[in-house]
Structure formats: structure tokens, C-alpha cells
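Lab notebook, bench 4. We co-purified these components, and the gel suggests they stay together. Before we commit to crystallization screens, I want a quick structural picture of the whole thing.
Request: model the full complex, all chains together.
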Amino acid sequence: MTDPQLVLAERVQQALATAFGAEYAAEDPLIRPSQFADYQANVAMSLAKRLRRGPRDVAQEIAANLDLPGTVEVSGPGFLNLRFDDAWIAAEAGVMLADERLAVPRELPAKTVVVDYSAPNAAKEMHVGHLRTTVVGDALVRVQEHLGNRVVRQNHLGDWGTPFGMLVEHLLDIGEEAAVAQLEAGNGNDYYQAARAKFDTDAEFNRRARARVVTLQAEDPETMRLWRLFMDATVRYFNKVYTQLGVTLTDDDIAGESMYNHALAQVCDELQERGIAEISDGALCVFPPGFTGRESQPLPFMIRKSDGGYGYATTDMATIRYRVQDLKADRLLYVIGATQALHMQMLFASAKLAGWLPDHVSAEHVQIGSVLGSDGKMFKTRAGKSIKLLELLDEAETRAAAVLADRPNLDETARGEIAHMVGMGAVKYADLSVSHDSEYVFDFDRMLALTGNTGPYLQYATTRIRSIFRGGAHDPAGSYGPIVITHPAERALALQLLGFGGVVTEVGERNEPHRLCGYLFDLASAFTTFYENCPVLKADSEENRQSRLALSQLTLRVLLQGLDLLGITAPERM
Ligand code: ARG
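Here is the predicted assembly.
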């Protein structure tokens, strides 16, 4: 085991068991970063009361029983200051260097993780909110797969419902070819608005649209053909966005609302028969316990409207049943806007009530915070026009090219590819580096900066390491080492490297890619300090040169692997 915090936790727990009895072996040792040592353990303070002893006394006893590849010191009211031996750090870094997986443990036993993400609505332009659920969701699936879990992607497209009546009629009005061209080009919003305007003002169109909803629901073949035409063109546009972003979603992952069409009546019947749902004001509702509205009356989770129509809640009940019963999920991740938190909570509670969400399956709403414009409002429009995602991504690349304009020695094709990687890296990293549930302001200048916690900074950090290898005509994939610690900056870098597996595991457990971003940023900073203090190619001995090349190589591999888990590629030069 390489992860320093886990090593310490285990050793302190062993000491607790030896000193106070086996029942203390599972106690959280409260390992924290420390100013005075590598880490500190705070467990003595929390145990003192229970043991009816002074915290310092407890700390002394833990220390006396602690078997550590390093030193321990009791300080203050009962902190245990823990410091690893240099030799241990060097040896563990060597283990990591020799390991293809960079000491990232596999999750055992492997789980089936179903991840619902992206999920744009076909009747509208895909907007930056969907960009963020796409980018965060894609990072989470990459991490889960890397941990060895079986991942099932579910792109729950908004591809069904009453608006499709007017969308199909509008398609007939403007002609199939023109409609397809418009949708493929990403003008879904204009299309929707034109249909909507006619629906509101043109009585004849309105009548046709309503009639079309009926034939659509009856799955009349010609209507289905037109609907599919509409959907295929729309999905071709979504795919352009996915391709440009380098997102792993494919057509096989589409599991839109329409997929559950046939299940909805049955979902409602079953829940009504079993008394889980009841009629209230003509609508069929579940009243999950613990949800109340004003004057504490129970809040309904409405699965069938009084007009007999089904809605978002009905479909989502069907998603849970399908994912648990058919896909055999152990974990369900719903990577969806934070604004839908109440819907998700009521959904999970209703599904529990129905017995569709057994205790061994965890359902998790990964809340995605809104992306704001510089005016602090939802970033949906610019100069009154809705922002087209593909244009936004193009702009990111153009701006990245401008940032790189003064870099020498890059030919034109390389420039184009680099600008693409840097532009996409910048946009994705901005979505990932703040905690997923907080809002942030979309700002090209900030996300493209070559300094600070940005995608381009980390990409640049990898190219700097590559250039060290180029400078010495060394192969960055060659074999170097052994690693020895001769300077505090080497020690700090190696210790930081050892934390990689723990961070990746934690991201998988908590669905928090920003932790990996923070880790990689700290790693790049530790490398900078190392490089400023410890000459690599001009090291004073061959032993040190080998060790420093090995540390550089390990840093490069961890940065590249970490970025890859975030869905970001790094150019060889920039
Ligand atoms: N289409 C929805 C939206 O744009 C997101 C759907 C998320 N998935 C789900 N199972 N509810 O807000």
C-alpha cells in the first residue's frame, strides 16, 4: 500500500487495538495534514473522554505502541505528529514507478455503476448547463472504469412528450430536408421557438399539433418516422458537440425518455394497486414520508396528471426500476442540475417506498451548479441571442490559439491540434475544478490562463517535464531510478506523488472530480519547487540524475493519467 494517509490510518488503528483493545481497531484515527510533520493524528483527543484519561497520556500510549516506517512525536494537548522516513518514501515511490496502475487500487469487489449524465433536451438548444453535466459525468465514468467497476452510461435525452406534436407538424411545414439541416446545425432553439409561435397564434396549427400528439402516442408509423427523423438530426448535432469535447458517450448510451414509454402505465398501475400511490385531485401521486409543503401538508410526487398524462416523475420512477432490476446497478449516479434536488429526493424516497431501491443500492444525485455569465445570471444568452455550444467551443479554440500565438517552434498543423487540446482542456477543467454543486462564472480569460489552477497550466506542466527529457535526449518512457531522497523538495514531491491512488479512490467514492484537480495542481507546484532546487540533467552525481529523472517521469505519468481521468489530453509541446 502506497497511499500515506491510509498507511498511517492502518498503523494507528493497530496501535489503538494493541493499547486499548480490539474494539478500538475500527476507530477513525483522524489523520490530518500537519504544519509540523507529514501528517498528524488527532484521535487521542477524541478518545480521552471515553477512556477516562488525559489526552496527552492517551497519545503517549498510542505512540508507544505505534509501528511506523517513520517517527512519532506527541505535541500540544495530545496531537501525534507523524513523519515518514525518507527511505520509506523513496521505496514506495519506486513501487509506484514500477506499477502500470501507478498504485491506484482496484475497487473490490467490482460494482456496477449506472451513470445518468448529459441528457440534453431535443426540443431545445443544448446549453452550457448540459455542457457541465456532460463534462462532470464523463470524468466520473472514466474514474469508475479506471477503478475497475462496470459502468453503464445512460444519456437520458429529453426526446418525448407533448411538445413533439408541434415539433413534428413544424417539420412538415418547412419540409424534411430544411428541418434536418436546421437541427443538424444546432439550431434546435430557433426551430422550437418557430413551432411554439405558431402553436400560440395559429389555431389551425395548434389543432394539428394536438392531433399529432395523439398519433405520436399511438405510435402511428408515419408519425414515428417523422419523430425519428427529427431525433436523428438532433442527435447528430449532440454528437458533434461530444466529438469536439472528446466525451465518451456514443449512440449506444442513449436511453431517452421515449425508451420508458411502454413502462409508464404499468409503473402507475402497480404503484396504485399496491397502495403506494393514490389519487389526489384527480392525479395519481406518491406521498413520500418527510416531504411537506406550506402548512405542513404532504407534498405529492405526481406520477400521472389529472388529464391522464405522464411526466418527468413517472419516467424517472421507471429509470430506477430499470437500472436496479435490469441493469443490476449497485450504484446509481444522477449527474443533474442542483435545481432538481427536490425532484431527486422525492424520487429516491418514492422508489424506496415502492421497494425499487433496495438498501444495498445507493442512489446519488450529483448536483451540478449553474454556470453563470459575467452578469451573474444563468449563462444562456449573449447579446440577447442564445449561445450555441459548438460556437462556444470553437471560440475556446480560437482564443487558445491566440494565447499560444507567441510560442516558437510550432508548425501550423501542430498549432491547430494544440489549440484544440488546450481550448477543450480549459473549458472542461473550469467545469471540474470547482466543487460540482457550486455555481461559477464562465470566463474565457480565467480558464485559459497559463498560471493558476487551470487546465492549460497543468497541460503546460506536462510539456515542461517532457522538455527536460528532450533536453537530455532521454526517452520519457525509458527506465530510470532508483529514487533516493537527498533534498526536502524531492521528499515533498515524492510524498505528494504517493497520494495519487488515495485521491482517485476518493473521487470515485464521493463523486468529486475537483479533488483530483486540486491534487494535480498541488503536484505541479511541488514539481516546480523540486525543479527550481534540484537540477535534473546537471545533477551532481549519476545516482541523483537517475533518481531525479525517475521522479520527473513519475510526475509526468501521474499528471497525464490524472488529466486523462478528467477527460483532458495534453499536447507534447505547447
Ligand atoms: N433532460 C433533463 C434536463 O435537461 C435532464 C434529465 C436528467 N436525467 C434524469 N433521469 N432525470 O434537465
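The chain has a mean pLDDT of 95. Worth comparing against the SEC data before the next meeting. The radius of gyration is 28 Å.
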